[in-house]
Design goal:
Distance between the termini: 27 Å
Shape: globular
Order of helices and strands: HHEHEHEHEHEHHEEHHEHEHHEHEEEH
Radius of gyration: 22 Å
């Protein structure tokens, strides 16, 4: 936004500098100095003005792993800080109870009216093996009790996108591409005369995915619904950034949270508290694949990462490879010590809910 404002002003100066010289009775050098002062003032104002929150649709398998929990905690923490407007929380799996689990987190973070979508057609039903979902549903408040009470994910996508300004929505997927694939295949309906691909192209400015292993390999989210991954990434109607397996593998979080005695009756803490002891590999904290995707979707990538441009190719068995000559997609490459991201995630997942004007 800052660069856009400055570029526009430079064009105006280019065209109107002769008029300024003639009509303000300034010599050439004073006129240039006058224009530079204006440019500096605009730059300063743009730098200090508060950025608009990012409009996010969050699409998660919410289990079988529990980095999804860290991701939704970060989403709400950044929403409390005014950095995010949460348009909806979608499930890309349909095990019974996933809608209730999403509702638990939305309710806990004082956003009980956040729309929730669940696949109504064919979809995976993978769930957590540590049984933290059962604990959350039994212990914490939520209005939605069964998946039948949640909205159809694809219809909810269409309804929300149709109502938003052009190029104003960021979609972050940290699960399977089932919903997005089905969305691309939709036809015109009561919400929009556009088909799914046209609607996404018109309304979505960025897709951020925790998906892929780069430059090649097998990654869970891509592999488990390979046909959906192929459909989304081959049609790619909007710019896409991948946070690959290799990015989150090093980042291990959760220990500061479960050892923080000041935090009580917190569903995020309960999930990490239940799950970390059940796997030896998690003894130093759980790997943070999904959390990185949410961070990049909200805060952007330049502080921590660079982008490797190209395009993903997904084989029928789910293996992904990278085409450096492709266009419109990129995967993250580490720029700084991963522990900086690790510290930030540990801080954000300990965030406690607050009632603010941003909560709804």
């Amino acid at each position: 936004m800052v660069d856009v404002k400055i570029n526009i002003l430079v064009l105006y100066i280019h065209f109107y500098l002769p008029w300024i010289i003639n009509n303000m009775r300034l010599n050439k050098y004073k006129a240039i100095l006058f224009c530079l002062c204006i440019l500096c003032a605009v730059h300063t104002q743009a730098q200090t003005s508060s950025p608009k929150p990012v409009n996010i649709i969050f699409d998660s398998d919410m289990g079988p792993d529990y980095d999804d929990v860290g991701a939704i905690a970060i989403l709400h923490a950044l929403a409390d800080k005014g950095e995010v407007n949460i348009l909806a929380t979608m499930a890309s799996t349909k095990y019974e109870g996933v809608a209730a689990v999403l509702d638990v987190f939305n309710t806990y973070f004082n956003r009980p009216n956040t729309p929730i979508g669940v696949p109504k057609g064919n979809a995976l039903e993978l769930r957590d093996w540590q049984h933290w979902t059962d604990t959350l549903i039994a212990k914490y408040s939520h209005k939605i009790k069964t998946n039948d009470e949640a909205q159809d994910a694809v219809k909810l996508y269409r309804k929300i996108l149709a109502s938003r300004p052009d190029k104003s929505v960021t979609i972050v997927t940290i699960g399977f591409l089932t919903n997005l694939s089905n969305l691309l295949n939709t036809r015109a309906d009561e919400y929009s005369p556009l088909n799914g691909k046209q609607l996404v192209m018109k309304k979505v400015k960025l897709l951020v995915c925790m998906a892929g292993k780069f430059p090649s390999g097998y990654e869970f989210n891509v592999m488990k619904d390979a046909a959906a991954s192929q459909n989304v990434y081959n049609n790619r109607p909007t710019p896409t950034i991948f946070s690959g397996f290799e990015i989150g593998e090093k980042i291990k979080v959760g220990l500061p949270l479960i050892h923080n005695d000041a935090i009580k009756n917190d569903p995020v803490k309960d999930v990490f508290r239940i799950s970390i002891p059940q796997a030896k590999e998690d003894s130093s904290g759980r790997k943070s694949w999904d959390e990185t995707a949410v961070l990049v979707a909200v805060k952007g990538y330049p502080k921590f990462y660079t982008l490797h441009q190209g395009r993903i190719n997904v084989a029928d068995d789910g293996k992904d490879t990278w085409d450096d000559n492709g266009k419109g997609q990129a995967y993250l490459v580490e720029k700084v010590d991963y522990k900086q991201v690790q510290d930030l995630i540990n801080e954000l997942i300990m965030h406690q809910p607050v009632k603010t004007p941003n909560a709804k």
